[in-house]
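quick one if you have a minute, typing this from the bus. theres a chain ive been looking at and ive put its sequence and its fold in token form underneath. please have a look and point out which stretches look like helix strand or loop to you. anything you notice is useful, everything is just below.

***
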Amino acid sequence: MNNKIIVSELTQINLEAGDVYHGLKNGDNGFLKFGELYFSKINFNKIKAWKKHKSITLNLIVPYGEVKFVFLNDDGSFSEYIIGDKNYKRLTIPPNIWFGFKGRKDPFSLISSVIDSKHDPLEVDKEEINYFKYQW
């Protein structure tokens, strides 16, 4: 497994009127500072890969659906984490780790990304899906 990635258990509060999903607060392991929050929708069985942030730390949460995240380790192997509303966790991803992800719930899943600075399209490296030899 990739020992740079932090996997944090998150709390879900079940309420009759609708559940509450904890995400990230100042002082949590993996929180550096607030830069930006955005949401990504991933359709069922679709893949978004590969990218690597050069300086941004990401905190990824899947409050709806299920997503498989795949990370390239330093030794060329891969680490996989499946998170979602039924396996509710936060993944903290430091800079310089290649990753991709696949939607695993029909019709779609929703990913929340809390990053430690404003998004900069020049800050991220991207490659095509077949760049790394991984069997999705």
